[in-house]
Amino acid sequence: MKRRTLLRFAAAVAAWAPVARLRAFAQAPPFSDGQKATLSAMAEVTLPASIGSTGRVAATQTFIAWHLNYRTGADMGHGYGASTLRRPSPPPVLPRYAAQFAALDAAARGQGAASFAAASIGLRRSIVETALTTPQAVNRMPARPNGANLIADFMGLYFNSADAFDQAYRAAIGRDDCRSLEGSDQPPTPLIVGGSGEGGR
């Protein structure tokens, strides 16, 4: 192969490789349809009823997007008030969920349901409570998923969010919003609570 031809070939491969990686990434969603259904069913028994179905859908999509956008080795910056940089982001925890999704379905089938997503709310709540206390109790919800417990990761990402803070205080605090000083002497606007009361905790 002539040198000029070889160089053109190498350039073509270099240009194609990133596109191929992006296509492969786009074609490999982080969660299957069945797992998404499980997350939606989980949201009904772990998130506040006050956020309604719209809020549960948004929380589920946020959890999925967090894993979809996760990048290993990303610069983590430094914590608030700290001068030292944190270690780059570790490998994704997503692979650790497969067995946990399977365990939820197995627990539901053991109680006569076709799957966790198809189980009654009462049965799902019982399965969730068992998963959070066996083999040892989860006593802290992580602010960011760590893979140790799928349910705790799902709940932790929501309950550490700005929306959860608003719900807790029943006010539009907007913890993560960049606000000016104008009006800072006034209390946050109260939220209009209009939850359906179904599901949730």
**Number of strand segments:** 0
Which series of helices and strands comes N to C? HHHHHHH
Helix count equals 7
Instruction: Tell me, rounded to a whole number, the average pLDDT.
Output: 79
What is the 3D shape? globular
- Specify Rg, calculated over alpha carbons: 22 Å
Distance separating the two termini: 68 Å
Poorly predicted runs:
9-28, 195-201
Q: What's the main sheet like?
A: none
Give the helix proportion (percent range).
Answer: 40-55%
Derived from helix and strand composition plus strand pairing, the structural class reads mainly alpha
Strand content range: under 5%
List keywords for this structure.
mainly alpha; 7 helices; globular; 201 residues; 48% helix; 0% strand
Structural write-up:
The chain is mainly alpha-helical and 201 residues long. It has a domain of 120 residues. It is 48% helix and 0% strand. Helix 2 crosses helix 3. The longest helix has 24 residues. The chain is globular, with a radius of gyration of 22 Å. The C terminus is likely disordered.
Give a short overview.
This protein is an all-alpha fold and 201 residues long.
List the helices and strands and how they pair.
Blueprint: H1 3-26, H2 33-46, H3 52-68, H4 97-109, H5 121-131, H6 150-159, H7 162-169
Helix pairs in contact: 2-3, 2-5
